[in-house]
Design goal:
The structure is a homodimer of 422-residue chains. With 422 residues, chain A is of the alpha/beta class. The first copy, chain A, has 3 domains: 127 residues, NAD(P)-binding Rossmann-like Domain (Rossmann fold), CATH 3.40.50; 162 residues, Dihydrodipicolinate Reductase, domain 2; 83 residues, ACT domain (Alpha-Beta Plaits, 2-Layer Sandwich). In chain A, strands 7, 8, 9, 10, 11, 12, 13, 14, 15 and 16 form a 10-stranded mixed β-sheet that branches. In chain A, strands 3-2-1-4-5-6 form a 6-stranded parallel β-sheet, with helices on both faces. In chain A, helix 2 links the parallel strand 4 and strand 5. The first copy, chain A, is elongated and about 80 Å long. The interface between A and B is large, with 55 and 55 residues. Strand 12 of chain A pairs antiparallel with strand 12 of chain B.
């Protein structure tokens, strides 16, 4: 039986779950796949790990890629710079390298793909996007003959959890975030998730594979989720729209449109029932048409399983040449992205304000699909006006929003949410 | 560059689409995967195929597995017996064998897995279940460390199309079937689809892989879809339930529950928005939790793509030992399957009938979750009574239904639809 020895760096939640998965699944994998896998070495700064005392452990993680007793290095330490050093050291030492680190892949995939190819070893990163969903192998191995036209997905479980709780339990953004933190779906410092950076990194990885062109985070237009008010979620409900943290990639002849932002979907969208911490990816490809993949976006065990699936690729002798796969240059642009738009404008309760806004919309050749004017508590003399605008591209809608914002009757920053037909 | 020569048997819709896919994707596959694929020989009873005249063609399909110019035989002729002969001849001649034929796999997988293993060649059948969704490789390669607890899916696109049209356009079963035939989603003889046999075959293949135990069609409890009335779909809407053709597999310690039948799902189910000819599979696994995969269930191009993904496995050197993977025996049973139930009982409009039915339910320890008594057109003195019954297993619900059916006030056969919490 083929034998594969793993050097594991990082023994936090995911690392520990991975080690336990290997130990618990060893017999199953031997029987079902004819492969013997074991962890031969652990790199952990603090030394021996409780529950994994039997495994030889070094405190210098850079010892791991040097060991003759290691075939594949699994990086679960997180962060970018140390992980990058470890990846380079591993690949140069002709060790296969498997990581769950989206920041590493989003930042350094180009160099790492090249180094893996030069050293004829496998670079696996299934766990870096959409945790438990085997989306990398689906794109790579399942949709082979397909030119992928577009993808749309929910890639940040924290944001999806927050929007779900705001909608279902009528919570404020702050209360929903606190709940996410309590339940372990948001970090103590949630900046990375709620600023949209996490989703943007994952979007760049998905885009790279989907379009076979190297995307990096600066190619992604992204917005955070912290400006969303319960008002918007409730107006959405009236309009049969559901708010989701969406990531999209659309291929056109000249360029690729890449974005990651809160957006409304129709209530019959396949993405509508994807709730709480779940992730999903919808892919539209030339031959197969639309397919969707949904599941847990994070969590130690789902992530550990995805890491294991990469290990199994290595056991299978797979050395995928990502450098060759994604060698084309990428031109990205967001300004031609076109969709319907939801605007919530807080206006002073004076006659004529709707007419002024309508005139500005008409001047920009925009048509109104729906308008809600709600007589809420008018103690401050301000009322929300919700307008749904038919299909407009980014350039025009942004100009129009700043035109409307300048009207003296407009009180607060306008809330703008894109509406996507997916 | 590695070179793979394909012998294609069958040049109907799928076979032709597959040949065109190979021709059109040749450059893409060479660039992205470093593999040269070509069709070196066609087996077609009627001889040369229009549009594929350049490819050497023989009229005796059994010549194909004998050819020295063929590495992998692709079977797209359909039917069981000839396909089985072709499969055996191919494997014995040490040719890899790839098929889209669910009937072949459902009927003969045990022998074919064995033969493939003995001859050290790959047996690929990705296209046999859920056409364009790479579900076989997801279970096999993506969910490795997971003991799969259960699956639930929509595996028959024809039935799903018919239910969708009945619901959306208020059509009768017959009218929806006619529309499915007109649009090419149902065969001129639709028996195989509407009897539930097609879904049952696919269920047996999914069960075999999910639970690593050999399932055959006789292990599957299945029901057809032709007894469904628009009345049931409309009562379902009132109860916020949506009718779907479902296939389920549930693992328990003693046995596996396998079934394929029309069932209601709640309107917020992940399966609710899977409409028309689409398929979907929801898998619940020990480590990953719930994941869902959705897409086209049939169609020449999606099927051709799945066939190609198997070819790529062969190009990768993959020879998966399915015989070893599914060597455990299977014990299946449906009588312990437990869920809520919808009953529509046509009763004569007499006082006391609801009391009689309630008494029978109470005697069987069943509780009523919902009851709708509708004063419809009473010209024939009969009214429909809809009862939703809380969680009951098959043994009890079947006994109760036959008890109720025997009441003199009950006019027509009782309509019984299971309600699944997925």
């Amino acid at each position: 039986m083929k034998n594969l020895k793993i050097g594991l760096c990082g023994t936090g939640n995911v690392g520990y779950a991975f080690a336990k998965t290997i130990i618990n699944s060893k017999a199953l994998i031997e029987k079902n796949y004819g492969l013997s896998v074991s962890i031969s070495l652990i790199g952990a700064r603090k030394g021996k790990v409780q529950g994994l005392e039997d495994i030889h452990t070094v405190t210098d993680i850079y010892e791991v890629p040097k060991s003759n007793d290691v075939d594949v290095v699994v990086e679960l330490i997180g962060g970018v710079e140390e992980a990058y050093e470890l990846a380079k050291a591993s690949l140069k030492n002709k060790k296969h390298f498997v990581t769950a680190n989206k920041a590493l892949v989003a930042t350094h995939s180009k160099e790492l793909f090249k180094l893996a190819n030069e050293n004829n070893v496998h670079f696996g990163f299934e766990a870096s996007v959409a945790g438990g969903i085997p989306i990398i192998r689906i794109i790579r191995d399942g949709l082979i003959s397909n030119k992928i036209n577009s993808f749309a997905g929910i890639l940040n479980g924290t944001s999806n959890f927050i929007f779900s709780k705001m909608a279902d339990e009528n919570l404020s953004f702050e209360a929903a975030l606190l709940l996410a933190q309590e339940e372990g779906f948001a970090e103590p410092d949630p900046t990375f998730d709620i600023s949209g950076q996490d989703a943007a990194q994952k979007t760049s990885i998905l885009a790279t594979l989907s379009f076979c062109k190297h995307a990096v985070i600066k190619n992604i237009f992204f917005e955070g989720i912290d400006n969303i008010s319960p008002l918007d979620i409730n107006f959405g409900k009236q309009l049969e729209l559901i708010l989701k943290p969406l990531s999209v990639g659309i291929m056109s002849t000249e360029s690729v449109t890449l974005g990651s932002f809160p957006a409304f979907v129709k209530k019959n969208s396949l993405l509508a029932p994807i709730e709480n911490e779940s992730n999903a990816v919808l892919i539209n490809a030339e031959n197969v048409g639309s397919t969707m993949y949904a599941g847990p976006g994070a969590g130690a065990k789902p992530t550990a399983n995805s890491v294991l699936s990469d290990i199994m690729d290595v056991g299978d002798g797979k050395i995928f040449n990502y450098e060759k796969f994604v060698e084309n240059p990428l031109f990205s642009s967001f300004e031609n992205f076109s969709c319907d738009h939801y605007l919530r404008i807080t206006v002073s309760d004076e006659t004529g304000v709707v007419a002024k806004i309508s005139t500005l919309l008409a001047e920009n050749n925009l048509s109104i699909d729906n308008l809600i004017q709600k007589e809420l508590d008018k103690s401050d003399g301000a009322i929300p006006l919700v307008i749904v605008i038919n299909n407009s591209d980014e350039k025009i809608i942004q100009k129009t929003i700043s035109d409307i914002q300048m009207l003296s009757e407009v009180k607060n920053p306008i809330s703008h949410i894109r509406i996507l037909e997916i």
